[in-house]
Amino acid sequence: MNKNYRCEICNKFNPIDRSKLAVGDRVTFTFSTQRVYRTHIKCAIKTVKGRIQQIHGEQVIVSYRKKQYPLNREAVNPAGTPSELAYVMIGTCICGDSHD
């Protein structure tokens, strides 16, 4: 994993700056599907890579496999950043800019 995402002081992940996202950027996002059967419900949760097609304020439209998904800006991560699960397990740096 890229060391640029880790804080040198606390070794937790640095917060993601989503304000720099632009049209054409590759991002990852998570979506779920459900199938209802007569006796059970089957759920699948998947994290995939897509490309930003449009940005409207806090909403982004991401294309993945010829489908377009309207998502909140907070629901997407730049491709290559740690996953949300990694952030939950390891934690987010709260040192801020006080590393000096």
List the helices and strands and how they pair.
Layout: E1 26-36, E2 41-56, E3 59-64, E4 67-72, E5 77-78, H1 84-90
Antiparallel strand pairs: 1-2, 1-5, 2-3, 3-4
Structure characterization notes:
The chain has one helix spanning about 85-90, and strands at about 25-35, 40-55, 60-65, 65-70, 75-80. The protein has about 100 residues and is mainly beta. The chain has one domain. The protein has a five-stranded antiparallel sheet, with no helix packed on it. The protein is flat, with a radius of gyration of 16 Å.
In brief, what are we looking at here?
By secondary structure, this protein is mostly beta strands. It has 1 helix and 5 strands, in the order E-E-E-E-E-H.
Features of the shown structure:
five-stranded antiparallel beta sheet, mainly beta, 41% strand, 100 residues
Query: H/E order of the elements?
Result: EEEEEH
Helix content: under 10%
Strand content: 35-45%
Q: Outline the biggest β-sheet.
A: 5 strands, antiparallel
Count of strand segments = 5
Shape designation: flat
